[in-house]
Specification:
515 residues; alpha/beta; TIM Barrel; 8-stranded parallel barrel; binds 3-methyl-2-oxobutanoic acid; binds zinc ion; leucine biosynthesis; amino-acid biosynthesis; acyltransferase; acetyl-CoA C-acetyltransferase activity
C-alpha cells in the first residue's frame, strides 16, 4: 500500500512575503482557487496579524475553499493565535500554524530567551490554539541548525501539548540531503510520542537543495511537504511544489508514496502564480520552464521523434502542457474561442468568455491571427487589468522625436469625471504619458521598475509592460498589454493607479471597521 504525502502550499504566505509588490485580495483568491483545483491538501493563506489586508483576504478565502483546508500562520503569541482563529472562523475546519525559533542563534540573539522559556512559550501557545481547532501545526524555526537534543525535547513537549503536525523547517536552506535525512531519522528514533503526529518538512533553497532535502525527508518518514509554486519564497525560495510532486510521481514505485495532486493542473497553476506574482519563470526551470520539454540538438530531436521517452522522463501532457497551435481570426466565433481555451486546459469558470471574446475580436482585427499565448494573455492579464477600473484611459496622443521633447495629451476618466492633461518631457514618450497621468490623479508615486517584454513571437507579439511603483511606502504592481508598446505602458500605469485607488478605499473601510 502506498502512503499519502500531504501537500501544504505556502505560496500565499512564504511566497508572497518575497514579492516586490504584495498581491491584492482578488489575486490571492484566484491563486487559492487554482491551488484547490490542483488538489493541494492545505493552503497556508497568510499571516493575519501582519496586516489588515492579509486578515481580510484570509477571511474571504476561508469562505470559499471546499476541498483544501485553510491554514494561517501565527507567532507563539496569544494575540496572533486569536486573530488567526478569527480570520478563519468561516471555514468548515482550519489549521493554526505556530512557529518559534529553536536554534541557539534564534533563541539567544533573536528571541533573547533560554530554551526552557522557548518550550513554555510553544506549549502554552499550542494549548491556546487548541481552544479554536484540533488541527495545530508547530514549526521549529531554523530546525536545520538546531541541536538534535533540543529539537527532540521541544518536539516531545509540543506533541504532549497537543500539536498534530510538527514541521521541521530548514529555514535558511543550510542542510544537505543526507544531513536533513539524518535529522528526520533521529527525530523518529528518539522522540517517544512521535507516532501520534505527522512530521512535516519545509525547506528553503539557499544551496539549491530544497527539493532534494524534502525527498530525503520523505525517505526518512516525513509525511507532509511544504512548498510554493515555482519555488517562490524568501531569498532563494522554498521547495518548488511542481518539482517535488513530479519527483514523488516519477519515483512513486520506489518511494511507495502518492499525493492527491491533479497533475494536469500543474502547468496552469504555475502560470497563474507566475503572472499574478509578476515572477517570470526561467526558461530552463524544471517541469514548468519554457525549455523543460524542448529539444535542441539534432541527436536529441531525432531520438524524441523515434520515441519521446529517449529524452523525456515526463510526458508534458500529464502536467497539462498542451502545445496547441491555434488558427483563430476575427472570423472565428465564440464557440471556437471556447473550444481552444478548453484544449489548452482551461475550464469555463477560469475566465469570462463574453469579456474574452470581445477582447479577442479587437485584437484579431489588429493582429490578423491569434495564438494560444494571445488568448491566455487576454484571459488573464486583461482580467487583472480590468479588475480595478476607477480610472480609464479614453484617449492619448504622444509625439516623440530624435533629440527633442516628447509631448503627451491624455483624456482620463476618473470615475464619471473627464480629466484632460498634457505633459512635456525630454525623457521620452513613456515618461511624457506617465507625467500626464500623474497630473490627472495627483498621486505622488515613484516608478521603481519598468519591464517591457514581447508576449509571443516575432512581429505577431503583444507588448507586455510590468511596472512597480511606490506610493506611501507601499509597492504596487501593474500590467499593460497591447499591440502598441506606448499604449501597453500607459495601461500598466492606469492599472497601478486603479490599484492604488482601490487600496485607499479598502484602507478607509478598514479604518471604519477598526473604530
Ligand atoms: O522558513 C521557515 O522557517 C518558515 C516557518 C514560519 C515555517 O517559513
Ligand atoms: Zn519558510
Amino acid at each position: 500500500m502506498k502512503e499519502k504525502i500531504i501537500i501544504l502550499d505556502t505560496t500565499l504566505r512564504d511566497g508572497e512575503q518575497a514579492l516586490q509588490a504584495s498581491l491584492n485580495a482578488n489575486e490571492k483568491m484566484q491563486i487559492a482557487l487554482a491551488l484547490e483545483r490542483m488538489g493541494v491538501d492545505i493552503i497556508e493563506a497568510g499571516f493575519p496579524i501582519s496586516s489588515p489586508g492579509d486578515f481580510k483576504s484570509i477571511q474571504s478565502i476561508s469562505k470559499v475553499l471546499k476541498k483544501s483546508k485553510i491554514c494561517s500562520l501565527a507567532r507563539c503569541l496569544f494575540k496572533d493565535i486569536d486573530i488567526a482563529a478569527q480570520a478563519m472562523k468561516y471555514a468548515q475546519n482550519f489549521r493554526i500554524h505556530l512557529f518559534l525559533g529553536t536554534s541557539n542563534l534564534h533563541v539567544s540573539s533573536k528571541l533573547k530567551k533560554n530554551f526552557n522559556e522557548i518550550i513554555d512559550m510553544a506549549t502554552s501557545s499550542i494549548i491556546q490554539a487548541k481552544r479554536y481547532t484540533n488541527d495545530v501545526e508547530f514549526s521549529c524555526e531554523d530546525a536545520g541548525r538546531t541541536s538534535i537534543d533540543n529539537l527532540c525535547s521541544i518536539i516531545e513537549a509540543v506533541i504532549e501539548a497537543g500539536a498534530t503536525t510538527v514541521n521541521i523547517p530548514d529555514t535558511v536552506g543550510y542542510t544537505t540531503p543526507t544531513q536533513f535525512k539524518n535529522i528526520i531519522f533521529s527525530i523518529f528514533n528518539r522522540v517517544k510520542n512521535i507516532h501520534k503526529i505527522i512530521i512535516s518538512v519545509h525547506c528553503h533553497n539557499d544551496l539549491g537543495m530544497a527539493v532534494g532535502n524534502s525527498i530525503s525527508a520523505v525517505e526518512a518518514g516525513a509525511r507532509q511537504i511544504e512548498g510554493t509554486m515555482n519555488g517562490l519564497g524568501e531569498r532563494a525560495g522554498n521547495t518548488a511544489l511542481e518539482e517535488v510532486i513530479m519527483a514523488l510521481n516519477v519515483h512513486r514505485d520506489v518511494l511507495n508514496k502518492y499525493t492527491n495532486i491533479n497533475l494536469k493542473e500543474i502547468y496552469k497553476t504555475s502560470k497563474i502564480v507566475s503572472q499574478f506574482c509578476n515572477m517570470p519563470i526561467s526558461a530552463n526551470k524544471a517541469i514548468v520552464g519554457k525549455n523543460a520539454f524542448s529539444h535542441s540538438s539534432g541527436i536529441h530531436q531525432d531520438g524524441v521523434l523515434k520515441n519521446r521517452e529517449n529524452y523525456e522522463i515526463i510526458d508534458p501532457i500529464s502536467i497539462g502542457l498542451n502545445h496547441c497551435k491555434l488558427n483563430l481570426t476575427s472570423r472565428s466565433g465564440r464557440a471556437a474561442v471556447k473550444h481552444h481555451m478548453q484544449k489548452m486546459g482551461y475550464r469555463k469558470n477560469d475566465y469570462n468568455l463574453n469579456e474574452l471574446y470581445v477582447d479577442f475580436l479587437k485584437l484579431a482585427d489588429k493582429k490578423g491571427q491569434i495564438f494560444d499565448y494571445d488568448l491566455e494573455a487576454l484571459a488573464f492579464f486583461k482580467k487583472q487589468q480590468n479588475l480595478r477600473e476607477y480610472f480609464k484611459l479614453e484617449y492619448f496622443d504622444v509625439q516623440s522625436k530624435l533629440s527633442g521633447l516628447s509631448v503627451a495629451s491624455i483624456i482620463l476618466m476618473c470615475g464619471t469625471e473627464i480629466n484632460i492633461q498634457k505633459a512635456t518631457t525630454s525623457n521620452g514618450p513613456v515618461d511624457a504619458i506617465y507625467q500626464a497621468l500623474n497630473k490627472a490623479t495627483l498621486y505622488s508615486i515613484v516608478l521603481k521598475k519598468f519591464h517591457l517584454v514581447a508576449n509571443g513571437e516575432g512581429k505577431d507579439a503583444l507588448g507586455k509592460v510590468d511596472i512597480v511603483v511606490q506610493y506611501k511606502s507601499r509597492n504596487f504592481h501593474g500590467i499593460g498589454l497591447a499591440t502598441d508598446i506606448i499604449e501597453a505602458s500607459a495601461q500598466a500605469m492606469v492599472n497601478v493607479l486603479n490599484y492604488i485607488w482601490k487600496s485607499t478605499q479598502v484602507d478607509k473601510e478598514l479604518e471604519k471597521l477598526c473604530k
